[in-house]
Amino acid sequence: MRQRRNTPQDKTYRDTLGDAQFAVLVLLVASGTLIFFTLAATLWLM
């Protein structure tokens, strides 16, 4: 029987953990940027 390679099911736990950490990092950066610009705009308009 042939083995399939490079399928999403074949990802190792380490690869999945790396993807999750990258996703969390992107969300943190996006959230921080949004909060920063919201605060900057609010304080600038006061």
Describe this protein's structure.
The protein is mainly α and 46 residues long. The chain has a domain at 14-45. Helix content is 72%, strand content 0%. It has one helix and no strands. It is rod-shaped and about 65 Å long.
Task: Jot down its keywords.
single chain; 46 residues; mainly alpha; 1 helix; 0% strand
Q: Any low-confidence stretches, pLDDT <50, length ≥5?
A: none
- Global mean pLDDT: 85
Give the number of helices: 1
Morphology call: rod-shaped
Ends distance: 70 Å
Along the chain, the helix and strand elements come as H
Helix proportion range: over 70%
What percentage of amino acids are in beta strands? Answer: under 5%
Largest sheet: none
Q: How big is the Rg?
A: 20 Å
